[in-house]
Amino acid sequence: MSGFLLRLAISAFALWVATRLVSGLSIDSAGSLLLAALLLGFVNAVVRPLLVILTFPLTLVTLGLFLFVVNAAMLGLVAAFVPGMHVAGFGSALLGSIVVSLVSWAASAWIGPRGTFEVISFERRPRP
Q1: Range of the structural domain that residue 12 is part of
Q2: How many domains, the chain?
Q3: Which of 69, 93, 107, 111 has a CA 20 to 30 Å removed from the CA of 12?
Q4: Residue 126 located in a structural domain
Q5: Neighbours of 55 (CB within 10 A)
């Protein structure tokens, strides 16, 4: 359960950073921010894989660049369902999805696959 909450906090933080950096993206309250983070996780787990499969030929032709459009569509879909979240247009959704992806990736690098903080220690072994 703590891993889920940690990933939810990372998503909420990434959305908050995106609202600060992208001018056409805004979230009115902390409750809307948490709801958007929760819904974004659900949409990325359920809807996005289906859309990626359906748009595979277009993604292949564009050498993977169409995945940016899919990510922007997922952010726009979340904004359509969350009261208090506003996306001005496709450009804002595209930039916002890139910021959310980068911040989430950087923050998730500090946690392990079980959703807990990982500590990596390197022991120095004496030479034989």
Answers
A1: 2-108
A2: 1
A3: 69
A4: no
A5: 16
**Tens place of pLDDT per residue across the chain (128 aa):** 677 888 889 999 999 999 999 999 999 999 999 999 999 999 999 999 999 999 999 999 999 999 999 999 999 999 999 999 999 999 999 999 999 999 988 887 777 666 666 666 667 666 66
Total count of residues recorded for the chain: 128
Residue position matching structure tokens 């034989």:
128
| Angstrom distance (rounded) from CA 86 to CA 15 | 12
Classify 105 as helix, strand or coil: helix
Angle between helices 30-54 and 66-81 (to 10 degrees): 140
- Paired tokens of 40: 């974004």
**99, 15 contact by CB (below 8 A):** no
Structure tokens given for 21: 């950096």
Q: What is the chain's percent helix, strand, coil content, to nearest 5?
A: 65, 5, 25
